[in-house]
Amino acid sequence: MSISQGLIVCWATLVVLSVGTVLAGGSGLWLAVLLLAVVKAWLIADGFMELRHAPRFWRRLVLGWPVVLVLVVGLV
């Protein structure tokens, strides 16, 4: 798969996840909304920001941040 095809797949997946977020939010499934937000953040970081090729420290830092935010929001 070429880079442009990979980005198109990534974009299409983000569209599906965004629709899922709206549907879950409308149903009151707040945990599903938070989980979908984390998946979207990971997809953006790995797919569009190309963190797959970044040093491990930066990749873990960026991929861990959405998890920290979900934990904080979930506790509040």
From TrEMBL:
<keyword id="KW-0472">Membrane</keyword>
<dbReference type="GO" id="GO:0005886">
    <property type="term" value="C:plasma membrane"/>
</dbReference>
<dbReference type="InterPro" id="IPR005171">
    <property type="entry name" value="Cyt_c_oxidase_su4_prok"/>
</dbReference>
<dbReference type="Pfam" id="PF03626">
    <property type="entry name" value="COX4_pro"/>
</dbReference>
<keyword id="KW-0812">Transmembrane</keyword>
<protein>
    <submittedName>
        <fullName>Cytochrome C oxidase subunit IV family protein</fullName>
    </submittedName>
</protein>
<keyword id="KW-1003">Cell membrane</keyword>
<feature type="transmembrane region" description="Helical">
    <location>
        <begin position="28"/>
        <end position="45"/>
    </location>
</feature>
<feature type="transmembrane region" description="Helical">
    <location>
        <begin position="57"/>
        <end position="75"/>
    </location>
</feature>
<keyword id="KW-1133">Transmembrane helix</keyword>
